[in-house]
Design a protein that fits this description.
This protein is mainly α and 103 residues long. It is built from 3 helices and 2 strands, in the order H-H-E-E-H.
Length: 103
Amino acid sequence: MAVTLDDVRHIAALARLGLTDERAQSLVAELNTILEHMDVLSKVDTKGVEPVAGIGAAGLPLRPDVGPPIPLAREREMFAPSMRDGFFLVPRLSTHEDPEAAS
């Protein structure tokens, strides 16, 4: 499945991105190169290969979270109007309010 110039323009419009014709053509070429590579990878025989996440079956080793806290340039209370239990309290966005609950 190849990406067309119309596909790129459609996605750019959905994302509200302004693309020049030159950049759109470049993206078509780049995306089609990526898809061609994925097509090659999909043909690799992986039967008998165990799936892994991270490095090895155990995953990526993590270091212990130790050490002194990093000092801030200002007190935490200066970053937000109010705090509770060490967390910042910020005003709720009007776009997240339920209009039915307000009335």
